[in-house]
Design goal:
Elements: E1 3-6, E2 11-15, E3 19-25, E4 29-35, E5 40-46, H1 64-77, E6 86-91, H2 107-121, E7 126-131, E8 137-142, E9 147-151, E10 158-159
Length: about 160
């Protein structure tokens, strides 16, 4: 079994028995999509909610709107069927306490919400999520089973 690593503002796909992981999700969101029949999955490490708000948005994996679309394209190119795809998300923490109503401190919430909206637009059911709170996460997707492992320092392993 190989481990495929996804960096920050990056995405990739894998097939069972391999697994795919991304480290250090703070306010970022890890979006896993998965076809349970052919056991192909993909993972995107999203940093920001909306590419249309940025002038330099050439890295499509960085944003929820463009990153999720690209992730879907890639898993389908590898043999997944869009009608069978399901999704799970993790991350979106509020890592810094910001005074007042600053939107900067709330980027985690906005990332999670943008991810939910994009999945809904694409007709991909969101089966489970572990988002918010104030701690970072590392995630692992196992396409053989569809299990999404969420690891955080000082917390017990969560499988969704």
């Amino acid at each position: 079994m190989a481990t495929i690593k996804v960096g920050m503002a990056d995405l990739n796909i894998c097939k069972a028995p391999d697994m795919i992981t991304t480290l250090g999700l703070g306010s970022c969101i890890g979006i896993a999509v998965y076809d349970p029949v052919v056991k192909i999955g993909g993972l995107a490490h999203i940093m920001l909610p909306d590419s249309t708000q940025m002038r330099n948005n050439s890295n499509i994996a960085k944003f929820a709107d463009t990153g999720i679309e690209e992730l879907i394209k890639r898993v389908m190119a590898a043999g997944a069927n869009k009608r069978r795809l399901v999704a799970k998300i993790a991350g979106g923490a509020k890592m810094f306490q910001v005074s007042g109503l600053s939107t900067i401190g709330n980027v985690g919430d906005r990332n999670a919400e943008a991810s939910r909206i994009k999945l809904k637009q694409l007709g991909i059911p969101l089966l489970a999520e572990d988002t918010g709170l104030n701690y970072g996460r590392t995630v692992e997707l196992y396409p053989a089973t569809g299990e999404f492992y969420i690891k955080a320092v000082g917390k017990s392993l969560k499988i969704i």
